């Protein structure tokens, strides 16, 4: 009996539906009738078919979003928007099993991680943002425009929703990526047209239905399925979209900027990373070793925050490498639906080939293999967690974001703090990073000097709904999460009144 036969009825029923676009509260097909297949990365089988949208569907969705923004949604009070966000969190919990199964089938992540995401991360994020609508405030300003004296003029600011938001999300963490766009949209009173990754559209579609069930009016949240260079490009270029929120590769981020230039829409980008993990010789190794293994191999390394460049003090280098290699070898590789699996497949055969080619390039350039380095022969797109040692800053797998389970190790010596900082920062990216030490002075110096949007000490990728997250350098523009995550969805109006 296959693992898939144990899926819940709700999931089975969802998969066999014909999946269109969610526009103005209705599921609709593409004008062209075109569809694409969605695959389970754990075995390569087709699990669903989706309508492939283009310019026509994007235009229809943007018009629906504009009408909702100017119509019913604008009459919702902030307290009503809070209640809707809270209700969405409740519905996510009530549909926990189905969302977990769809996310695993679509993306391949292991069951315990899917349970954490669907049972904790996503509902708690919606609850965090449920607190904000009633607290979005402007200011009174002690201004004297045109020489007015105090008492002759009243100046203040209004914080207004930016309007129609276009969101484009990647496949590596489908539901959390969609959550990051929907929650601030609803909290600020914006409306949304979302194009989920074509490789993983399932949970985005289900979440749109749950939003409707929670009382979000028609047209506020719209989903258009399709490919990046058609549906995605049309959304980024649409003249009636006020802002684009994009998460994906740096390469596509650049295309979004060009496409958005037509009407100068505002753009936030959460892009690639090549984050450093720095382990000093005084670190508590029983925590640093599993911590570094998780930092790189979490989500099979298909994670923009992944700690893929490891810098280890020479005194502990061998012990750390052996420890992480032992942890990697002990990971149970298998389909995410098998609850005992700890390490799932990569998203596609193409991604697996890409990872393999980076490892090969590193070995040709002189790196050594401490573990891994092979694709599995079983069905699905599995690739072993891999460690390359003796790497140099200019080697191909060190300079490029691989988006796979490949850790590149470099060593440093005793008096090299400046050199370690320089090496850690010698990347075009600046998203995350971690420092492992018991010395507070070392930690404080390192966190100030690592050029990343997020740095953690004795932990990696410390994500929380309240903590701003985003990239420096070519890792992006703007921040998501926390109060700062609302800013790109708001605009400020300065108002002065005299009488
Ligand atoms: P990843 O490397 O994570 O697949 P991509 O940057 O390729 O990330 O894709 C992220 C999202 O961007 C996906 O939804 C994809 O369809 C979309 N996309 C790809 N190319 C374009 C484009 N030219 N314009 C707009 N969106 C695009």
Can you offer a commentary on this structure?
- There is one protein chain.
- This protein has about 500 residues and is α/β, with parallel strands linked by helices.
- The chain has a seven-stranded mixed sheet, sandwiched between helices. A six-stranded mixed sheet has the order 9-8-7-10-11-21, sandwiched between helices.
- The chain starts with 8 loop residues before the first helix and ends with a strand.
- The structure holds adenosine-5'-diphosphate (ADP).
- Adenosine-5'-diphosphate binds next to helix 8 and helix 9.
CA-based shape: globular
Q: What is Rg?
A: 24 Å
Number of helices: 15
Structural class: alpha/beta
Text of the CATH class of the largest domain: Alpha Beta
Strands side by side in the biggest sheet = 14-15-16-13-12-18-19
CATH fold-level topology of the largest domain: Aldehyde Dehydrogenase, Chain A, domain 1
Briefly characterize the structure.
By secondary structure, the chain is α/β, with parallel strands linked by helices.
């Amino acid at each position: 009996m296959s693992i898939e036969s144990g899926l819940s009825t709700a999931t089975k029923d969802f998969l066999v539906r014909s999946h269109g676009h969610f526009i103005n509260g209705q599921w609709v097909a593409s004008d062209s009738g075109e569809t694409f297949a969605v695959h389970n990365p754990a075995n390569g089988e087709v699990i669903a078919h989706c309508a492939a949208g283009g310019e026509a569907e994007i235009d229809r969705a943007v018009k629906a979003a504009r009408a909702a923004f100017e119509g019913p949604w604008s009459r919702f009070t902030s307290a009503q928007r809070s209640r809707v966000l809270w209700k969405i969190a409740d519905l996510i919990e009530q549909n926990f099993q189905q969302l977990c199964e769809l996310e695993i089938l679509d993306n391949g992540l292991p069951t315990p991680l899917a349970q954490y995401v669907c049972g904790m991360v996503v509902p708690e994020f919606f609850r965090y943002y449920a607190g904000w609508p009633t607290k979005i405030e402007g200011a009174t300003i002690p201004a004297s425009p045109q020489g007015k004296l105090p008492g002759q003029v009243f100046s203040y600011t209004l914080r207004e929703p930016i309007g129609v938001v276009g969101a484009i999300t990647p496949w590596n963490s489908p539901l959390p990526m969609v959550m990051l766009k929907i929650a601030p949209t609803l909290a600020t009173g914006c409306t949304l047209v979302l194009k989920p990754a074509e490789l993983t559209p399932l949970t985005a579609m289900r979440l749109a239905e749950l939003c409707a069930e929670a009382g979000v009016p028609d047209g506020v949240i719209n989903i258009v399925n399709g490919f990046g260079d058609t549906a995605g490009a049309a959304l980024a270029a649409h003249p009636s979209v006020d802002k684009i929120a994009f998460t994906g590769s740096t390469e596509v981020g650049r295309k979004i900027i060009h496409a958005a230039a037509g009407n100068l829409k505002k753009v936030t980008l959460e892009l690639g990373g090549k984050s450093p993990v720095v382990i000093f010789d005084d670190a508590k190794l029983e925590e640093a070793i599993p911590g570094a293994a998780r930092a790189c191999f979490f989500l099979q390394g298909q994670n923009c925050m992944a700690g893929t460049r490891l810098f280890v003090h020479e005194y502990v280098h061998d012990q750390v490498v052996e420890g992480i290699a032992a942890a990697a070898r002990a990971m149970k590789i298998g389909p995410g639906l098998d609850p005992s699996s700890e390490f799932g497949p990569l998203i596609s055969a193409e991604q697996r080939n890409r990872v393999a080619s980076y490892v090969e390039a590193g070995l040709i350039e002189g790196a050594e293999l401490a573990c891994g380095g092979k694709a599995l022969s079983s069905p699905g797109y599995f690739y072993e967690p891999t460690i390359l040692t003796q790497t140099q800053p200019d080697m191909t797998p060190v300079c490029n974001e691989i988006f796979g389970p490949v850790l590149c190790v470099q060593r440093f010596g005793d008096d090299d703090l400046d050199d370690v900082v320089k090496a850690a920062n010698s990347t075009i990216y600046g998203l995350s990073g971690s420092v492992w030490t018991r010395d507070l002075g070392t930690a404080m110096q390192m966190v100030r000097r690592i050029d990343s949007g997020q740095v953690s000490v004795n932990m990696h990728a410390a994500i929380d709904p309240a903590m701003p997250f985003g990239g420096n350098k070519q890792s992006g523009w703007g921040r998501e999460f926390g109060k700062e995550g609302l800013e790109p969805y708001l605009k400020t109006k300065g108002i002065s009144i005299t009488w």
